[in-house]
Amino acid sequence: MLRYVGKRLLMMLLTLWVIVSLTFVLMVTIPGSPFNSERGTNEAVQSNLEAHYNLDEPYIVQYVLYLKSIATFDFGPSIKQPSQTVNDMLGRGFPISFELGIITIIVAVISGVTLGVFAALKHNQIIDYLAMGFAVLGISIPNFVLATLLIQQLAVNLEWFPVARWLSPTHMILPITALATGPMAIIARLTRSTMLEVLTQDYIKMARAKGLAPWKIICKHALKNALMPVVTIMGTLLAGILTGTFVIEKIFAVPGMGKYFVESINQRDYPVIMGTTVFYSAFLIIMLFLVDIAYGILDPRIKLHKKGGK
Amino acid sequence: METLLEVRDLHVTFSTYGGTVKAVRGVYFHLNKGETLAIVGESGCGKSVTSQAIMRLIPEPPGKITKGEVIFKGKDLASYTEKQMRAIRGVDISMIFQDPMTALNPTLTIGTQLMEGLREHQAVSGEEAKIKALEMMHLVGIPNPKERLKQYPHHFSGGMRQRIVIAMALICEPELLIADEPTTALDVTIQAQILELFGHIQATTGVSIILITHDLGVVAKIADRIAVMYAGKIIETGTKHDIFYDAQHPYTKGLLNSVPRLDLKEERLTPIDGTPPDLFSPPRGCPFTPRCPLAMEVCGKVYPVTTERSRSHHVDCWLQDERAQQLLARTANQ
Hints:
The complex is a heterodimer.
Chain A lengths: L1 H28 L13 H10 L6 H13 L14 H36 L4 H15 L2 H15 L11 H31 L2 H8 L4 H38 L5 H11 L2 H29 L12
Chain B lengths: L2 E14 L2 E14 L3 E5 L6 H8 L8 E10 L2 E2 L5 H7 L4 E4 L3 H4 L6 H12 L4 H14 L5 H4 L9 H13 L5 E5 L7 H18 L2 E6 L2 H7 L2 E6 L2 E7 H6 L4 H8 L39 H5 L4 E3 L5 E3 L5 H12 L1
């Protein structure tokens, strides 16, 4: 187990390095610079600015400096807003984005699994049809459409919820609903289909033959097996939710990290691009790693430390 | 001998898109205490459905017990509620399934699965349950039970898994064990070991066994009495001796003829021609009529009455009728 974790950590660092390098290549190949839009700066000022941010150095030197700043996790101040460091921005934005993302995942998993289990237990009955109809809608409607619909109906027309911003739990309901519906629908459909398959297995019959209570059969014997595929797709869903937060944060004016990420790219604010990219990638890689660990815990047949296994 | 279980006029149907399948059509049999009854028949004859109906494990819908009584220790299980049934399952009646590779939950340890039945039905501490589980593993012959308890099903071979399943079924000391083709998925040497284990268990615990199988070799080894099932009905019952040496029903004879024997020099086995009838619309008369070499006009029209050849030996066949016997004697003379 420890060896596996060590190996995985190395692989994660390698992955991160590839992402970081690709980002660097992209940054230097995209035309434009942070100072393009500032009219009226004369050439001397411009070259001074570039020198200040080491942008006049050869690419290879810039690359080394860039790697150094990542290794020390010190990205320096933003070029566009020199009064703030990138770390300040991350420190302010990340907790909010994290809150949005984590609550979304929890909501999506709990509601998706519940919906899927009920649909499977009431297979081909009205609950099943309703749940699956709902799931198809959830998968088909993009989150930004759902977000605007929710705002229009529930916030503007009915005035049940605030239209935007991130101040109290009631502010959270709409953005989380908009973001969680898609993943929830996917989880519900997957849970239903695997649950249906698991329920026909002999070990479920065996559990019934032992005289176990129905809820025990569902929770202990069926669910653990049915959740395996759900854990598998969690990685992909996480990436989806992560990118989804950019859009949702924008629509609901949530002051998370998404704003910095998108703005920094538009403005060629190199330190902020670096910071957010590294941060997002590291976060996603760690989450995927946790998913793999969870998989090994759920299914004892998967041996984490031995290659190939038995 | 004391009767432990008596099944009377059991009917089970399954509704499908194609119509209603009458899988079990009026089955009668009884089981004495400490006895092994084998229910024999080819695939689809309703033997597994019968056994699952006793435990009320048939998925409803599509399945349904439409008629009949299952008298276990004087009480009719067919009228029990699901909750009452749960107190019977695993405690008084246990079941073993065909494929030990799928009968164990791959994500739970053997120990958990062994002990959960006990903990569900009896107020025992974790330590007591563990002692009992170790005892059961010892009974079914699993070496190193202590370490084995913590392992998962994939650490065990097929034969070992079947032993675990048997231990699981016996942990609450049931009076009746229903084994649905317990050796079919195992290779021959393991089969022999498991059958020996059944004998050993019966000798130590006195449990009664209903053995569902299509393997007459298995039957010969461990059964006391045999019930031959065909198209949802039991067509002949008798002691092992009755069936193997004095089979009366042409179907039973056909089954026995299709088993390879070491003491005869025949090169080819004799199969029973044809296929079992369609149970969507079972025939009015004897279901074996189209395949029967001795079928008479009456066979296709009226289901035969049960003939009691001895106290233990019962046959549902028109050939048992006096007139048929005279006819047979006459044709034999000619």
